[in-house]
Amino acid sequence: MLGVALFALSLLTSPAMAEDVTLKAADGAKLHAVYEAAAKPRSGVVLVHMLGRDSGDWRFLADKLKAQGVSSVAVDLRAHGGSATEGQTPTDADFAAMHNDVRAAVQLLKDKGIQDIAILGASIGANLALTVAAEDPAITSLVLLSPGMDYKGISIEGALETYGERPLLTVVSKDDRYSAKTGLWIDSQARGYHELEIFESAGHGTRMLNKAPSLEPMVISWLLGSYRLKDAGTGKASLQAGDQTKLETTGQTLDER
Asked: Which single residue of 16, 154, 244, 257 has CA 20 to 30 Å from 100?
């Protein structure tokens, strides 16, 4: 009996497990998401994955955020992960409606009573994060991993002006030319407190979390509000002229940085 009692006590005192939830987007789409609730949340973050990936990419980061008092919701964008039917691939209409998926995840945190909400997105998820935050003044901060000027019709043109002076961390890698150039443009256009971290050879999107060990603590410190330049690790690598891949932008070019 004592063993049973101790087991029951451990269930009561152990941290809450990740919870699979169903979100309903404004257009009626049903979405799978994973909600990680901190015991006494100081803030919350919406996690938005890359193209062809799903909410599982954020599992380890979400656990660490929860331990620091940050609740999170990692959404499977429509036609991805648990939000997709078997064999489904995203269409142009799906991409155009994905803003609704991120908004639904933000709303979940609001419904939980969390007022300090950030969005962390990777690749197409970064573009969605910026465009959704631009229209929602309740979003207090952003982290963009490998954004692009336009991914699948999701353009960030004009979003920075609307986003205004809220904090913004952009992280790119030198070997990911398109995102690196986009990062320079964001750095030149952002109006409020912002940082651009450039890794030497970390790849694209959430893959950078595996290839750049300093990125995870950097992101966590930003979301906790304790970020400092010394946390940048191997970031701030200089970009050299070379690949002349075209990028339509009014910001600085690689040659000017």
From this structure: 16
Range of the domain at 187: 18-256
- Flag whether 185 is in a domain: yes
Query: pLDDT tens-digit profile of 156-185?
Result: 999 999 999 999 999 999 999 999 999 999
Indicate whether 3 belongs to any domain.
Answer: no
190-247 pLDDT, tens digit per residue, is 999 999 999 999 999 999 999 999 999 999 999 999 886 444 444 444 443 333 333 3
**Number of structural domains found in the chain:** 1
Q: What tokens appear for 106 in the block?
A: 């933000």
